Records
---
Amino acid sequence: MRHLLSTRDLDRTTAVRILDIAEDMADVAQRAVPKLPTLRGKTVANLFFEDSTRTRLSFEAAAKRLSAEVITFSAKGSSVSKGESLKDTAQTIAAMGMDAVVLRHSASGAAATLAGSGWIDAAVVNAGDGTHEHPTQGLLDAYSIRKRLHGAASRGRDLDGVRVTIVGDIVHSRVARSNVWLLTTLGAEVSLVAPATLLPGAIDSWPVTASHDLDAAIAAKPDALMMLRVQAERMTSGFFPNEREYAREWGLSAERFARLDADTMVLHPGPMNRGLEISSAAADSARSVVLDQVTNGVSIRMAVLYLVLSGNDGTDA
Amino acid sequence: MAVRLVLQQADIQRALTRISHEILESNRGSDDLVLLGIPTRGVMLAERIAGIIGSLEQRDIPVGALDVTMYRDDLDRHPTRTPRPTRIPESGIDGRTVVLVDDVLYSGRTIRAALDAIGDLGRPRAVRLAALVDRGHRELPIRADFVGKNLPSAAAERVNVRLAEIDGEDAVEIDGGTEHPGGAA
């Protein structure tokens, strides 16, 4: 694998392979020495042009567990605030001899631009680009669902027939997009629930069903319910009247959570707005996989860094 | 190109039986013995040897799988390898005699990687090496303690081990070389 830019590029075999390698990486975390020498001598640059805590820390932990050197760059307090372009920043980083660039950027398509630009030779891993994609989040969500359903027997399995409902701010959500492409590629049936203003205009061309009624979605007993964060920072105009109305119609309140099927797991990519899209009763319950998602994120990112940084010709054996 | 059959099913069975006896002899019994196969075919061979020793000793011999992909030093020289699961027996490896089992011993680099992997998993009392075929061409100071068959080969040849568990039959054959590779013995 040369780059990881989008889950749309992944076929089912490749996706299952990444999840399976992540299983092996998760086993490593349980050992006395939770570290592998695999990427000794490689350098990974974390380029974060947009705020992030968990994704940045997760990539950093993943690279370090594989013995890579990590250099982290945040746009705040850097030359970007002096007006440096993505190209100049990338070339500066490349001149320092980086093997991989983990890029988070507010512009959709930034990672693809960097990978296809010829500015740098390094492998590019998309860690979130605008409202486009966040592929490692999609992968870790798929991993978390598979792990919760199949436990130790997860290896080699896809998500055939698994019913996943994604709720909330779909239009601004790169997490939703990465999940829609990946989960459907893996065979899952994905449905979306959102206010009409927060569904993308091109929803008809997506391989999903869409509705506005969370109570009906809960009554349909999905295998997994993914609550998305309300992204106040991307809401430039009134997408819904106010937070209380959003919470009442589309939030997983304690009362709704009580109606949820006992086998339905609850996911949230974090950071959570407690009391808005998710209640503490749901977030802290045994059916919540929120903390598993964080743990699994490190395993997934180890698998991805291994795949883009090993091999001599970008092809796979 | 000629394909030469070197070991048949009965030969492999005899070699594994002899290796099993040799392991028991050198370990003075089966106490504290752990067999770790190197995927893919080493795992099957380790399970077969554990079965033979188990029936000789009337006890279960701990057997597992040790994947060494993430410890290799040649990851940049080949297409990306997919790691296989590592399974360590519940008894662990600390203070035990670990016998590594692989199908073909060649450059020795896989075993070097395996020794590093073992070091991250615990501290065995001793590590031994069993290989069904030793084809020479070592690049590191590593040798096997138990060998099924020494098989001088040319570097250009391929040694294929096929096992009934995944290949449908037991056989070892040499592929692609001439009958008598010069100077390879």
Note: Chain A is about 40% helix and 15% strand.
---
Amino acid sequence: MENVVKKKGYFRELDKSLGISELLHAEVIDKTAPAPVHWWDHAGLSCFGGLTFLFFIMQTVSGLFLLVYYQPHPDEAYASVQYIDSYVNLGWFFRRSHAICSNLMMITVIIHMLKVFFTGAYKKPREMHWVSGFVLLLFTLGACFTGYCLPWNQMSFWALTVVTNSLSSIPFIGTYLVEFVRGGENVTGVTLLRFFAFHLIIPVTMLIFLLAHFYMIRKTGISEPL
Amino acid sequence: MNSSNHIGSPESPKKGRREFINYLLGGSFAAWLISIVYPIYHFLEPPKVEEVKVSNLKVGKVGDMEKESGKIVKFGSKPVLVVRTAAGDYKAFSATCTHLDCIVQYRKDYGQIYCACHNGRYDLNGRNISGPPPAPLAKYNIAIKGDEVIVFKDES
């Protein structure tokens, strides 16, 4: 309790009830980071997991606000995206940052994975960290691709056609799978609505894996320098 | 921790500096928060739509509407109720109920203008005669040019 920030009035009362500063001290402020040892520590390569999470948060925020203007309907989708770009206040900023940060997130994910792979940080007892991280990679790719389809322009439409069609090369279940993700035989408005739903479902599911991923790291601590 | 000679303690001679840093950090945090909240607020503000100024509107030929009937037309962004009375005269009113903005209609069985939301009624001069409406309907003017019925609003 020594560490509890001495604030007055409402802040102190809130803090007493919620225990925020206690938690902050235990988990953030008084927590020492391991001293950098290797060149990759000095180069900041250990920050890329955190950066990826930062992008995840930014995508969630900008995405939630884009929902206000985007219309997931084949007749309206493209027009609503153009409307966001040219009429909505700062709409271009929200849309472009959502698109650019998705690319940056892919880059940070890959650097994070390369660093973990080449420093052997995935080894025992951190096998499940890697597995949950790999699932998160798949979710990130899924979120990026479903988002790419939403502007419903030529690029989106043909990307959707080609990528869903490529599922048909999976033996036995391929053709069924194509129809399943398309919501029918062809790419139609139903497909757009499905991909819009996937684009919302994926991040929510991702959050569960993220929390597991973070909890594991908190439990085992980060990998000791080799 | 011994608080009496600890740097952060209130008795410390460094209190002034520490307080200054706290204000600086608090101020930066507030500025950061504003830099996030303001763009979001601005984004959510409805974008300005260029409104087409309508000063008059053709609603059809004189014989198009039956006697004792009404129809709603869009006058710019506002709904207007055009009524043809039993005598064959045309009348036009704002179709927005003065109670809570529902759209009113002409009811042949009452011979009155009626708002379905809360049973409000207006007579054929637009006066509120029954139910909750607190004020009469705004009047629009009718002109008949040749056999064309035109609704227009005084610019005043």
Note: Chain A has two domains: 1-31, 43-220.
